[in-house]
Write a structure and sequence with these properties.
about 30% helix; L-glutamate N-acetyltransferase activity; binds coenzyme A; six-stranded mixed sheet; Aminopeptidase; alpha+beta
Length: about 150
Amino acid sequence: MGSNNFCFLRGVWYIDKKLLQALDSFIVVEKQGEIIACAALFPFFEDKCGEVAAVAVSPEWRGRGQGDKLLDYIEKKASSLGLQMLFLLTTRTADWFVRRGFCECWIECIPEERRKRINMHRGTKYYMKKLLAADTTCAIYYDNSVRFNSL
Ligand SMILES: CC(C)(COP(=O)(O)OP(=O)(O)OC[C@H]1O[C@@H](n2cnc3c(N)ncnc32)[C@H](O)[C@@H]1OP(=O)(O)O)[C@@H](O)C(=O)NCCC(=O)NCCS
């Protein structure tokens, strides 16, 4: 195999690995074979914090506590991973998170590794929430109709 092919395959493998790692961070809620909500937790172990991202509930299921359950699960999962804080970036759903204990913070509070990838033109605001002590009881949190990807 030529060195160009080798570099190409190595590149594909690297992208696939990154993609798989990212997929592992997603949590989906499934009802009757349909995904009705999702969220992601990206841990930054060195900074002992995690990013909450991609929180979304399908329109028909909104206002029925699915967002709350997802966030609760993420908080427990983050604690069980030894993380002490959660942070998030949002341009439009700040109120929802503030009602759930998040406080606006400076960009300097965001891990440097994540800060480098922030698009400063989006008018994003940053929020953080301190987590309670580790809780490892979240393994089975939902009923059987709900599936979680492992983190
Ligand atoms: C924000 C979102 C995840 C909430 O999910 P949900 O399952 O409807 O949330 P819950 O049922 O747990 O909570 C509903 C409560 O949040 C409130 N709420 C919903 N969207 C809100 C918003 N954008 N800002 C403030 N409050 C909001 C509802 O009015 C309701 O309040 P109540 O309990 O006083 O009646 C959902 O509306 C959604 O998917 N929005 C579009 C995607 C999005 O903006 N995601 C955030 C990306 S950072």
